[in-house]
């Protein structure tokens, strides 16, 4: 699959934008803050229903506008599909497929992309929520209905926490809070499905991650992924003192009981503490995945280069799973200012690893940061405008080195 045409209306700093695209690699070039990232962010939003830079939708709507619209014409072989999303300041967002209304959560069924960004270093070095989000975004792209399960779980979790806080304020004892049992049943049903889906995904990612890491580093550092489940005693959020830094930090060994049974037992054991704190202490919202290199946690032990390689391997492995399972071909690969963060060897190895994908979109402040095999088509971005698109063989020999100065690297990547 590839994006044949992208249209934006009142999205970020774009009042209007039209960009024709095709298979192969396209590099979006411009100084920081001009709008390169905004273009590729919009494609990623269609696939994940979220931005890799902000948690809410309001920042995606141009100042002074009531709504932003993203339209993408997706092509796969002889088939084309027009995907449209309207982000509203007031009211629910709206979506269309070939001009027919659909639920927004249906979009990831058709638009598949994997985005690499400087923020990905947080997958290895950041908080558990970053790793949970990575897994959940991939789950939704592979099985869109899970987006509804996740939303339902969040609603039940919010209601349960509200009840716990109310009980704490009123000083109710656990045995008098019978309504909590009703919320527990729903929390266990939804949460157990999410836990099982994440466990299956972690197991599937193992071999592709190892292969992708080796392609980038050409060394056997034995990358591993290991689940840390709160229902089995793991405490990813640190309320019970935090997860131990050792590989055994995945909690107590799970029994032969089902996930739902272990979830129920954990809730029962912690009900007193939950009433004291007014918060739900176990469930998929408090789980983590431990990333290991050579048997040691990458967070805290891995070098900067090893951490980057692990993050890239996770993205490459995600792309491989989507490629393997999708009936619409390869996902669109988006590399948002990633090459500026890598040394020359990792740049070249990453370029080689992604060379076989149908469409690759790269953003860069300095064109020299991008490996030559990916510089097939160049699009210049300036102040929210697409000012030029050219094939590399149309450029002067010296044009590539003249595109940007080293000072263009300065600035906040999140400005687009």
TrEMBL record:
The gene is recF. It holds the Pfam family SMC_N. It comes from Agromyces lapidis. HAMAP family: RecF. Belongs to the RecF family. Residues 243-258 have a biased composition (Low complexity). Its main location: cytoplasm. ATP binds at residues 30-37. Keywords: ATP-binding, Cytoplasm, DNA damage, DNA repair, DNA replication, DNA-binding, Nucleotide-binding, SOS response. The RecF protein is involved in DNA metabolism; it is required for DNA replication and normal SOS inducibility. RecF binds preferentially to single-stranded, linear DNA. It also seems to bind ATP. It is found in: Cytoplasm. The keyword DNA damage applies. Residues 236-258, 397-416 are annotated as: Disordered. InterPro entries: DNA-binding_RecF, DNA-binding_RecF_CS, P-loop_NTPase, RecF/RecN/SMC_N, RecF_2. PROSITE patterns: RECF_2. SUPFAM superfamilies: P-loop containing nucleoside triphosphate hydrolases. Signal peptide: none annotated. This is DNA replication and repair protein RecF. Residues 3-364 form the RecF/RecN/SMC N-terminal domain.
């Amino acid at each position: 699959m590839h994006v044949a045409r992208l249209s934006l209306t009142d999205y970020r700093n774009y009042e209007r934008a039209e960009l024709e695209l095709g298979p192969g690699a396209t590099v979006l070039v411009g100084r920081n803050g001009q709008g390169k990232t905004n273009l590729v962010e919009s494609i990623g939003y269609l696939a994940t229903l979220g931005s890799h830079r902000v948690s809410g939708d309001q920042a995606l709507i141009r100042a002074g506008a009531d709504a932003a619209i993203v339209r993408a014409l997706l092509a796969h072989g002889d088939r084309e599909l027009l995907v449209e999303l309207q982000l509203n300041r007031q009211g629910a967002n709206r979506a269309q497929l070939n001009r027919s209304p659909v639920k927004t959560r249906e979009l990831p069924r058709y638009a598949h992309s994997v985005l690499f960004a400087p923020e990905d270093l947080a997958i290895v070095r950041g908080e558990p929520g970053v790793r949970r989000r990575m897994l959940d975004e991939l789950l939704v792209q592979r099985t869109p209905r899970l987006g509804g399960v996740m939303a339902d779980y969040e609603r039940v979790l919010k209601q349960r926490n509200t009840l716990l806080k109310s009980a704490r304020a009123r000083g109710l004892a656990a045995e008098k809070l019978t309504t909590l049992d009703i919320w527990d049943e729903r929390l266990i049903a939804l949460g157990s499905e999410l836990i099982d889906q994440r466990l299956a995904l972690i197991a599937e990612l193992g071999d592709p991650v190892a292969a992708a890491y080796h392609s980038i580093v050409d060394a056997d550092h034995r990358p591993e992924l290991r689940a840390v489940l709160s229902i089995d005693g793991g405490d990813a959020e640190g309320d019970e003192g935090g997860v131990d830094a050792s590989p055994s930090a995945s909690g107590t060994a799970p029994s032969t009981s089902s996930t739902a049974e272990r979830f129920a037992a954990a809730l029962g054991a912690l009900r007193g503490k939950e009433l004291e704190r007014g918060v739900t202490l176990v469930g998929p919202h408090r789980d983590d995945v431990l990333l290991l290199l050579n048997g040691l946690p990458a967070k805290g032990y891995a070098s900067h280069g090893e951490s980057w390689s692990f993050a890239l391997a996770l993205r490459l492995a995600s792309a491989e799973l989507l490629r393997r399972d999708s009936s619409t071909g390869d996902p669109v690969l988006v590399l948002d200012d990633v090459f500026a963060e890598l040394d020359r060897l990792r740049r070249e190895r990453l370029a080689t690893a992604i060379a076989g994908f149908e469409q690759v979109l790269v953003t860069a402040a300095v064109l020299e940061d991008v490996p030559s095999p990916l510089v097939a088509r160049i699009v210049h971005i300036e102040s929210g405008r697409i000012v030029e698109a050219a094939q590399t063989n149309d450029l002067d020999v010296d044009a590539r080195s003249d595109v940007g100065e080293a000072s263009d690297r300065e600035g906040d990547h999140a400005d687009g």
